[in-house]
């Protein structure tokens, strides 16, 4: 009973860590107009400020994953939190373009260690019967942090200058890291797994050889499909996260504060609803088929297509809200099972490595989005560039369905732990 309660307490603690993970990274986008005017930055330079985080975050992913399978995950989670929080404070001291790029890159390095370690840790507290729900609850912190980062940075930037939100988030994150040293406990690896509950990979045994680790990570043919789909989904998400506040500021004439709030709130609140729905549905679908979580993801991708188009193309604020909310809900259905679906086809001892690789490749793909949209907007306009990204959702949605049909046994049930 104590373990049953504590495993949900773990999700709650990590919820707040992830909250600051996303608030810190999102804050910069809401003050782009201020940076553009005060530092005389071009649209392409702003895109590089945004992408510098993603490039380092992505390139650090494989290393972070392999470290997460070998070192204590509690140490990586708390150490990463304190490091990136201090870098967030340091960002506020930037006076030049290249200082901004440097600190954003260092923040990407610190945050790269979080997801491989935290999701591996959660999977050791939650078996197949609660894993999607646990990860869905945790995923809701992504949206809450994104809203807070966008709204608070926009409001504080408008009234107190762009640096103020970086002081706030950085100092609060550092305090949280110190508190968690005493509260977060490291579980035994694979403790939540039952016989046959590892996707058919056999007993828990860590590969010491790097090439053996990579080989075993990709031995299920569904793994590269899931990674490719994640690239596409992340590409579209980065378009909205990076450019929506600026889009609302310029196209709809909103104030900096309102653009930061509206550019994140409707999409992210709807995503919370979607992610909770996706976690609930997937934990039930997976009892009938090992691909149950993946079917939930494909539903979210295909459902989001018309809403993405609407959000970019409409001239009406109510229809814009509908588009962002609809896309947010659809995105949540997909997001709820990003890691849980991966863990259904990767053995426990390689999960942090698999997540690190998937996160790395996905964010490398996503890092192209800010620059691609900046260049496309110069020729076709920001509205057309955002709307056109719905084609990416269509392609990866169909790819995921193909992968399920081709590589997942339709009648093979996923084992459920007691």
UniProtKB/TrEMBL annotation:
Write down the Pfam families for this protein, in alphabetical order. Answer: MFS_1
Q: Which UniProt keywords apply?
A: Membrane, Transmembrane, Transmembrane helix, Transport
Question: How would you describe this protein's topology in the membrane?
Answer: Multi-pass membrane protein
Q: Which InterPro entries match?
A: MFS (IPR011701), MFS_dom (IPR020846), MFS_spinster-like (IPR044770), MFS_trans_sf (IPR036259)
A Gene Ontology term for the protein's cellular component: membrane
Tagged with keyword Transmembrane helix: yes
List, alphabetically, the PROSITE patterns matched: MFS (PS50850)
Where does this chain mainly localize?
membrane
- Molecular-function annotations in GO: transmembrane transporter activity
Domain Major facilitator superfamily (MFS) profile, first and last residues per copy: 10-405
Q: Does the keyword Transmembrane helix apply?
A: yes
Q: Where in the cell is it found?
A: Membrane
The membrane spanning regions, by residue number, are 41-64, 76-98, 166-184, 223-244, 264-282, 294-313, 352-374, 380-402
Name of the protein described by the UniProt record: MFS transporter
Query: Which organism is the protein's source?
Result: Paludibaculum fermentans
